[in-house]
């Protein structure tokens, strides 16, 4: 990583003065900025490289990177919040944004817009997604949506042909049950992961049933009937032989490591993730991946949404917010940095960056862009950020769904238990 020395500082003084003239302050001493994100080897490699680029271009700012896997990221962040030593810039997701605004961990960016932070070429939808109660808190670093990633070789061996016997952008759970079982029969590999304990899939299902995950008053939206139908739907697919056995799927509940996903390990032919993870998953496989939407109910109502894959946010503990927002601005605008980041965190929300990336996309990146083109008009409206307590509700869903996968309790009993706990969590949050 680049380090500032007296020689490099003096040699770069002209650049510093030029940057000050363009509207952002030059710092008399190197401002030290910490950037913390959840990652994986591919993301970490790219992010450390762009930090190197930024430090080389900005000798008056020194950025250092910190990273953890998703499972540990928020636990450490909670400890840092309590200790008052959060990094200056943190990665955040739309699903937890409201909680971190409510507890004061992140601060508005409005005072820096047009100065150290340039959002002039950002999509308005991305700006709106990062705006809460009229204040701009979160800078989108990519857009994504739910994606079913499938092993094209296994599908072909089973005679499941996209566009002919399988519509990747409009298939039902009943159709999934049929072709998942057919793939198992033809190849010996179950055709799909079992999403009984997958809260992302459940959230889509709720929208497909015409309901909201969280009501406007902050209460929980899904009914007993919806929860029961969701679990019964996956039970049907499982009983047809389309998924791995229940105990095997139960062991993966809550697991986020891409290397353990069924499509990567060969335990299934289809895995359900976020679209920005396509690049990372393909990097772990030899077989070529295909992309599809999540399955739908017979009514074919939209359930998935397009939302920021991640944000970068300024924390209350930053001692130098001008330097931190200068780095944040470069992270989404600098064409050298964004060329390295590519689409790994999602489709960039900055128009000039998208245009610059297009000619050099890899095959898997082009597939990601094609997926976004084809889901237009097939997604639901992005709801407000979930209320405080939503993360605990998700964990409760995953934990109780294991009872269903293991056959320890009946679906109606577990559904009733889950809804009671979800309402209690939201009421006390």
Concise structural overview:
By secondary structure, this protein is α+β, with helices and mostly antiparallel strands. It has helices spanning 6-11, 13-21, 41-57, 70-83, 97-102, 124-129, 152-157, 173-187, 199-208, 224-239, 246-250, 262-265, 278-282, 321-333, 335-341, 351-357, 363-375, 390-405, 411-428, and strands at residues 31-38, 61-68, 89-92, 131-132, 135-136, 138-140, 143-144, 146-151, 270-274, 289-292, 307-308, 311-314. The protein contains 19 helices and twelve strands.
Describe this structure in words.
This is Carbohydrate ABC transporter substrate-binding protein. This protein is of the alpha+beta class and 429 residues long. It folds into 2 domains: 6-142 and 308-361, D-Maltodextrin-Binding Protein, domain 2 (3-Layer(aba) Sandwich); 146-304 and 389-428, D-Maltodextrin-Binding Protein, domain 2. It is 45% helix and 12% strand. It has 19 helices and 12 strands. The strands form 4 sheets. It has a 5-stranded mixed sheet. Strands 9-8-10 form a 3-stranded antiparallel sheet. The longest helix has 18 residues, at 411-428. It starts with 5 loop residues before the first helix and ends with a helix.
Mean pLDDT score, rounded? Answer: 91
Number of domains: 2
Strand content: 5-15%
The second-level CATH architecture of the largest domain is 3-Layer(aba) Sandwich
| Computed CA radius of gyration, to the nearest angstrom | 23 Å
Number of helices: 19
Unreliable residue stretches = 1-22
CATH T-level topology of the largest domain: D-Maltodextrin-Binding Protein, domain 2
Structural class: alpha+beta
> What is the general shape?
globular
In percent, how helical is the residue content? Answer: 40-55%
Distance between the termini: 42 Å
Protein name: Carbohydrate ABC transporter substrate-binding protein
InterPro entries: Bact_solute-bd_prot1, SBP, TAT_signal
Keywords: Periplasm, Signal
Signal peptide: 1-30
């Amino acid at each position: 990583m680049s380090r500032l020395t007296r020689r490099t500082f003096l040699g770069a003084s002209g650049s510093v003065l030029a940057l000050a003239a363009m509207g952002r302050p030059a710092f008399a001493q190197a401002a030290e900025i910490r950037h913390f994100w959840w990652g994986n080897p591919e993301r970490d490699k790219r992010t450390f490289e762009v930090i190197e680029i930024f430090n080389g271009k900005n000798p008056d700012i020194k950025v250092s990177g910190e990273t953890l896997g998703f499972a540990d990221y928020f636990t450490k962040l909670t400890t840092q919040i309590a200790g008052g030593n959060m990094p200056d810039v943190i990665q955040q997701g739309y699903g937890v944004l409201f909680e971190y605004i409510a507890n004061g961990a992140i601060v508005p960016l409005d005072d820096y817009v047009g100065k150290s932070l340039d959002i002039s070429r950002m999509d308005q939808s991305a700006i709106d997604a990062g705006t809460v109660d009229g204040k701009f808190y979160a800078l989108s670093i990519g857009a994504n949506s739910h994606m079913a990633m499938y092993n094209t070789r296994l599908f072909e061996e089973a005679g499941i042909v996209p566009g002919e016997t399988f519509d990747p952008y409009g298939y039902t759970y009943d159709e999934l049950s049929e072709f998942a079982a057919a793939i198992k029969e033809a190849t010996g590999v179950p055709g799909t992961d079992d999403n009984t304990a997958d809260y992302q899939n459940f959230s889509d299902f709720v929208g497909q049933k015409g309901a909201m995950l969280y009501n406007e008053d902050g209460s929980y939206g899904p009914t007993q009937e919806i929860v029961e139908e969701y679990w019964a739907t996956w039970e049907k697919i499982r009983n047809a032989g389309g998924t791995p056995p229940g105990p095997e799927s139960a062991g993966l509940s809550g697991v986020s490591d891409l290397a353990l996903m069924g499509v990567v390990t060969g335990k299934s032919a289809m895995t359900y993730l976020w679209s920005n993870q396509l690049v990372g998953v393909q990097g772990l496989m030899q077989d070529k991946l295909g992309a599809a939407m999540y399955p739908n109910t017979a009514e074919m109502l939209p359930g998935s949404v397009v939302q920021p894959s991640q944000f970068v946010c300024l924390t209350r503990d930053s001692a130098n917010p001008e330097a931190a927002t200068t780095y944040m601005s470069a992270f989404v605008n600098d064409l050298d940095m964004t060329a390295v980041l590519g689409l790994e965190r999602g489709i960039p929300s900055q128009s000039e960056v998208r245009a610059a990336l297009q000619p050099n996309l890899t095959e898997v990146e082009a597939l990601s862009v094609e997926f976004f083109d084809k889901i237009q008009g097939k997604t639901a409206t992005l709801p407000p950020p979930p209320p405080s307590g939503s993360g605990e509700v998700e964990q409760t869903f995953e934990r109780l769904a294991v009872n269903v996968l293991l056959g320890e309790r009946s679906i109606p009993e577990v559904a009733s238990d889950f809804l009671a706990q979800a309402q209690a969590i939201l009421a006390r949050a």
